[in-house]
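Minutes, project check-in

Agenda point 3 was the complex the collaborators sent over. CS summarized: two entities, 1398 residues total, and the question is how they sit relative to each other. Sequences were read into the notes so everyone works from the same version.
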Amino acid sequence: MLGLAINLPAQSPALMPMPSDMKLNGGRYRLDDGFRIAVKADPKDDILYPALTRTYQSLNRRTGLYFHQQRITTADNRSDASFQVTVSKKVEPSVGANESYTLTITESGVSLNAMNTLGALHGLETLQQLLQSDSAGYYFPTVNIQDTPRFPWRGMMVDVARHFLPMDVMLRNIDAMAAVKMNVLHIHLSDDEGFRVESKTYPLLHQKGSNGEYFTQDQIREMIAYARARGIIIYPEFDLPGHCRSWFAGYPELASAPGPYVPGPRFLIDPDDKKPLTIASILASPSPTIDPTKESTYKFLDGLFKEMAALFPAPYFHIGADENNGVAWKNNAAIVAWMEQKKLANTSALQAYFVSRCYAIVKKYGKTMIGWEELNSPDLPKDVIVHKWLADGDGGFLKAHGTPAEIAAKGNKVLMSSSFYLDHFMPAYIHYNNPYLPKEINPNYLGGEAAQWTEVADRYNAELRIWPRAAAIAERLWSPVTVKDVDDMYSRLWRTSRYLDERGLQHLNQYETALRNLSRGANTALVRPVVEVLTPLRGVKKLIAKMTKSSVYSLPSSPNQQVSDILPVESEARYRFRKDVEVYLTTKDPAAEARMRQQLVSWRSASAAYGSAIAGNARLAEVASHATDLGQLSTIGLDALDRLKAGSPYRADDLKTEQALLDKARKNTAGEVELSVIPEIESLLKQKLIPEPKTISMF
Amino acid sequence: MLGLAINLPAQSPALMPMPSDMKLNGGRYRLDDGFRIAVKADPKDDILYPALTRTYQSLNRRTGLYFHQQRITTADNRSDASFQVTVSKKVEPSVGANESYTLTITESGVSLNAMNTLGALHGLETLQQLLQSDSAGYYFPTVNIQDTPRFPWRGMMVDVARHFLPMDVMLRNIDAMAAVKMNVLHIHLSDDEGFRVESKTYPLLHQKGSNGEYFTQDQIREMIAYARARGIIIYPEFDLPGHCRSWFAGYPELASAPGPYVPGPRFLIDPDDKKPLTIASILASPSPTIDPTKESTYKFLDGLFKEMAALFPAPYFHIGADENNGVAWKNNAAIVAWMEQKKLANTSALQAYFVSRCYAIVKKYGKTMIGWEELNSPDLPKDVIVHKWLADGDGGFLKAHGTPAEIAAKGNKVLMSSSFYLDHFMPAYIHYNNPYLPKEINPNYLGGEAAQWTEVADRYNAELRIWPRAAAIAERLWSPVTVKDVDDMYSRLWRTSRYLDERGLQHLNQYETALRNLSRGANTALVRPVVEVLTPLRGVKKLIAKMTKSSVYSLPSSPNQQVSDILPVESEARYRFRKDVEVYLTTKDPAAEARMRQQLVSWRSASAAYGSAIAGNARLAEVASHATDLGQLSTIGLDALDRLKAGSPYRADDLKTEQALLDKARKNTAGEVELSVIPEIESLLKQKLIPEPKTISMF
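CS then shared the predicted structure for the full assembly.
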């Protein structure tokens, strides 16, 4: 590994998201032990003062200096303090507040000014991202920043139902969200696989509806307080009426088909079922669904919504409403008779009826209702927020329910998660270039939410799955529409990843831990060069492969410990190699050539050593064929470099052989992973950089 | 790094602690997707069933298999299940219960039998440690184990006052304690630097007595429940009367000198103080101390003890009582007058009076009082547990207050933490060979506690500081006195470290994260070979160096981010090298020689590259002189190997030069670290293994 490090040149600070206005002035403000904060703010601002203390302690730790302040309080008002903070007004976190701030750093000090608490929190995060070091120590670049977000709603949805995510994962995720200026956490608290919050009103929900893993109400309150302190609101989703298998374990009377039920994947019939499913059979299957015709159903929901509306103070309440195919309803004669009696033409009308009943309850408890886009209908009340998730034209099976423009024109507010699904294993630029996100300004365009579903993710890889890619989505939602340079985004994204590591996020450690575990005590240095250029198959290929093989793979206890589960979705090693290919093909830069050669030789030898490195290790053997491909492709790459340098063209025969090896590698999906550097080797072969694809198939 | 891996031969399972009786039978029980648990137990055992579920899920994750059970319940009783569990009786965690179990693994299945819940928990931990893998997959070795502990009290004390440790660190530590069969967690909740638990009775204790970091009562309850589920009790320590600066911030009337006070190191006078202290001045200083002469003091303590005795259900309550030099009392005329009036001859008598008053309150609330050994006195009630921590004869400044035998003979129970202080940076064998731990059986010898103080530790390195060394202490307290082979212990300790990593402990990740952060984005592979053979200075050298320089270094917010803070206390690379030196000097084994040569060459080149690797990095430069030493010593080592092979003796001149380089390296304490491989290089030079020292100086 020695010598392989590419020390990127000193760069502008890796801010993410980019501020709306920034001017770097070329100087440096140096930190030393005497670094001090002074504040002018509402002395009762119980969000601001702890945030200042945290920021101060974080800078203290990262610099290894010995600052003198212990805890920033109203007594901290020295006019000679290096960092002057002025905040006009104390506010609570909310969507739509003024979030602007001004941050000025000169060679003699730092000043942060904000209209209110929320702007100040953002400014503190920007300041922390500005910390850099050189041989003389730590400094902030001198800069003038005026910053304000593009969208008021910069959210993240986390599914804790399929695989539960415990408190420490949730809290670290909140820290990371705050670091990239996200302000809304949407927790998908219930699904077929689990009901994940304690209900005192209906205790069988969490007791029988989970495998024992759920948030207590105390924990929810702790999480909300933790998020509040970081400028983030938390709202719950209870996914109705079609993702409720777990509810029926304790309350089978809610279901439109008799039980008994146990929590588990939607299409699970028998826990020992290994019969293969098909996509068609899944879509047409009578999955467990709430009975919307009984008044007792609404009485139950009233009791639950009342309890949960009080537990979650945020003004939003998500009822799901997605993916109900109506088959369970059609299979129930009483429901069909009821529909006829009520003159409901079809199950869509019945779903609209159900939604309208939920709406009344949500409203009664003072909340704004949100639902996935399937709840959209002409009669939908205007104060319901429509949460887009479908993406027409990418080969999806389900059709979108109106475009953002159509929904907004109708008078409903729109939240966008289409093409923001992190669990689709897409590279960050796909989310960054999200074609569904409207470019024009419209008060009904609230913003969006990155979404992490957990059929094939759990506490051991959730941070690795969400980060750093969510930072690219955060930037898309915060920064001006003009901030769109993908190369620039990536150069900051990799540094943001290391910054989040420094701040305590466990995404890098999750990879390292899993690699150590998979290596079973062997030296990870032997397998790392191969593994680090593998990436999980894009789209839902892995999910569908697992689902159609057996429902046992997506049980809420099923492990996610294959090589494909532990890999980052994007390979930084591949990114760096690609940059060198690009530079070399453009400029013939000898340093880039040297690095490429070193990398190719390293891959070739790692490929040759892989077999003995994994001897006796069945799980790492799963991707051994990719190691073989990597060796062959490295040889092709080295040969291509020789020919490029010598100006000696390929004979058609050679090209054919080499192209065949590339094609073979491209078809190799062993272990549900792919070798990421195939386009770069092919670029060397073709002496022209192959651009990244604009879209990537989900299937 | 390629090729440097030493693949240790397949070994017996790395059990830690070793069972009291074990017979390996040479076969293998293979796990597959069909692995199932069946239980016969009290259906109301709400500790056992969740523990079975956790064990099952942990095995599921570690094997990457797809087990079919979701959650182990009373319905799981199939007689054909692979793993049969029988537990006679449900019990709550406690000290002194029967903790025995029998674990039998044959080629056809696993059976665990225990008298009660606690034995079953231990058996489940043993089973998890037995998991091994080969090219065919995962297996348990066939074995008969009958196991029971040597001491009933196998504890750990964690100081959360000096630097606060948040919930996730505490919970992971509880998991690791359970993994090595520790059963008591003692939380040092208050000290001069902080009061770390919410008090509803006296809220200024945590509000003014901390930097905002403390456990809420909800969190304490959650922690206790988490520990209970793992067979561990938690009891609190409130360190009185001499470690109470933090209390006085909110309640200065408790102090024997007027305030105002702010939480901070005991000998802090001014937060900006940089005047150097000396050990003598520290020992003679009037540190803040409770006024024991006022009745209002005891009224306050009654209120607090009442609240905390209810919060912590365990039957023990620790009042500290250590390190009170009485100077603050002597400086207060009113206290001196009161002593004269009460005919108390000296401050020791006044301390005994204070202890007796505390005893009455603790007893009133139904608890057994524990105190550090300074509370020992002839009149101490027999139901007080004396907690030994001083170690006579190691150069300590304070004299021990009776030997275990003397205390036990007097009728008091004894807990041992002498020579179990993990924060003394001692290698594991020093704790393992603890000379203070009585070898004979006596019902008054309860056992002991590993202790981690946090003047120079915090959430970012606490796991690295405690583990894996605490596992050696756990073995000392659990396994028979005959289990004492240090080599065997180490061979299991390193594997236990990786096992704890696999179970979720963050000790390895803490090192890796800190190394990445210190490397500031540079390739850690460039600095790792040097850093991984450095170890922190042994004893209290670092603490004293910091304390006597300025109190600012041990503020509760001061960072622990020097190289010396992030290093494991013992170097595994050094251990492996030492093993090779030992083998080679004994047997001239060519494989050992080859590995040593490869290691020495690698060190030499890493040494040569260190300067450029850390260019621009002031913090890694702190240990650059050790890199230079490592290079010179590697050359000496290679030369010694050549001479050993050729049988060519050193000339006296050469030896003198090489010895001088070794001596220079030995004196190098730059960055408060030492190069760990000096004895091994010297062993090669002298052609004879230099044994590990029996004792290591604290100063």
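Noted in discussion: Chain B touches chain A through 78 residues (CB under 8 Å).
Follow-up: revisit at the next meeting once the mutant set is ready.
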